[in-house]
Amino acid sequence: MQPLPAAPASAATPAACAHALLNTLPPIMRFVRRHMRSHRGRGLSVPQFRTLAFIQVTPAASLSTVAEQLAASHPTTSRVVSGLVAKGLVRRRACARDRRQIELHLSSRGAAVVAVARRATEARLADEMSAFLPDDRAQVLRAMRALGDRFAAKTR
To answer: How far apart are CA 85 and CA 104, in angstroms?
Structure first.
């Protein structure tokens, strides 16, 4: 594969970077979602798997935050979560700060389901990245670290 063409620094305006992100992230995320879902495990619906993945990255998530993530109603989300609890993949726990609130946590089985899908997807992404030259992979790593550093605090 040919090296990525270097953009002159003058072309790397904030607007050009924003444009590139908005055009590049959606197909990457579709690729990731497709591969994660294809390894979601038997007997799990896509909403159930999305719930597991969300709870993994949002420990102590509430039913409301899960509903917002799924773009689903509270009753629908409650049914999804109840199914995951019944399968032993999610645990409900009273919130220490407000006992009226319930926190959702992955069980060890739930964490294992997400880990299997994540490992398979990471391996598939590594296959895709093997087509790039080492210098280009290093450039991708630098960009991902910079983006992660910049946006991680903004999404908490």
So the answer is: 10
Q: In DSSP terms, which residues pair with 61 in a beta bridge?
A: 104
Does some domain include residue 75?
yes
Structure tokens belonging to residue 149: 């550093």
Q: How many domains does the chain have?
A: 1
Q: Which tens digits make up the pLDDT trace of 56-91?
A: 999 889 999 999 999 999 999 999 999 999 999 999
Instruction: Note whether residue 84 is domain-resident.
Output: yes
Rg of the chain over Cα atoms, rounded to whole angstroms, equals 19
Kindly state whether residue 123 falls inside one of the protein's structural domains: yes
CATH of the domain at 94: 1.10.10.10
Q: From the centroid of its chain, how far is CA 153?
A: 16
What is the rounded CA–CA span in Å between residue 61 and residue 67? 10
Domain that residue 120 falls in: 24-130
Query: pTM here?
Result: 0.79
pLDDT tier, 1 (very low <50, low <70, confident <90, very high otherwise): low
Least confident range from 5-19, 46-60, 131-145: namely: 5-19
CB-based contact 70:53 (threshold 8 Å): no
Q: Which residues contact 49 (CB under 8 A, 6 or more apart)?
A: 36, 37, 40, 41, 113, 117
